[in-house]
Amino acid sequence: IENGGTVRPGDTIEVLTRPEHGVTVEDTFRAFMGDLDAARKVLAGDCLPEDEVEWLQERVVRRS
Questions:
Q1: CB under 8 Å to 13, separation ≥6 — which residues?
Q2: How far is Cα 2 from Cα 33, in angstroms, rounded to an integer?
Q3: How many Cβ atoms are within 10 Å of 23's Cβ, its own excluded?
Q4: Whole-prediction pTM
Q5: Which of 20, 57, 59, 62 sits a CA distance of 20 to 30 A from 5?
Q6: DSSP letter string, 2-56
Q7: Which residues contact 15 (CB under 8 A, 6 or more apart)?
């Protein structure tokens, strides 16, 4: 669905691209829940908006 819509059970989902950084949704969730290794991975992946980068960097510095 290119312009939004509803996804229903049984609909086909096709992965069109995968980012090269290798950061997953799980990595990001764990990073924001306090996992320092995951936070470092997410920060190294350079895949967050700047305001979230700053927040996560501060959290890593405080906990290191």
A1: 7
A2: 32
A3: 19
A4: 0.73
A5: 20
A6: TT-----TT---------TT---HHHHHHHHTT-HHHHHHHHHHT-S-HHHHHHH
A7: none
